[in-house]
Structure to design on (152 residues):
């Protein structure tokens, strides 16, 4: 399967359902709760206008948001349906992000993952990402997310 960039008109609510279901495993694990609960179809459409959204499958079984951030492409909402996991789809979407970064003359991929999601840390490290920092959500006096970068 090949990633494709999606733009309006598109089934934003269906994409929102994929992301919401893929992120459901974080419920009760991360503090503060994931922003996915506030993500609307309109938010996704705005992302497609301001940045990029790439999907695999029709209907999509994997997706990623790409946003230019300084010298990097910021990777957000990387989601793979449970039924499509362990097939290399996340890796394929990250490779697409690297291609897009190089096409724009950028040097990095950047992403954040919650402190509690240690399996994500391991997966991103295995794909060549290095932890470069931590951030804290407003109101927290401890790190809540790790920042990772990878040269492209």
């Amino acid at each position: 399967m090949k990633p494709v960039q999606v733009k309006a008109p598109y089934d934003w609510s269906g994409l929102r359902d994929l992301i919401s279901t893929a992120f459901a495993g974080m419920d009760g694990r991360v503090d503060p709760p994931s922003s996915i609960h506030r993500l609307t179809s309109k938010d996704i459409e705005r992302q497609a206008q301001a940045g990029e959204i790439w999907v695999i499958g029709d209907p999509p079984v994997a997706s990623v948001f790409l946003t230019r951030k300084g010298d990097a492409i910021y990777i957000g909402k990387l989601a793979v349906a449970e039924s499509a996991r362990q097939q290399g789809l996340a890796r394929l979407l990250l490779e697409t992000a690297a291609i897009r970064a190089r096409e724009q003359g950028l040097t990095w991929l950047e992403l954040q993952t919650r402190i509690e999601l240690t399996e994500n840390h391991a997966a991103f490290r295995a794909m060549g990402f290095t932890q470069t920092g931590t951030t804290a959500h407003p109101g927290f006096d401890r790190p809540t997310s790790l920042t990772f970068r990878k040269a492209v």
The chain has four helices and seven strands. The longest helix spans residues 89-103. The radius of gyration is 15 Å. The helical segments are 12-22, 41-50, 89-103, 118-126.
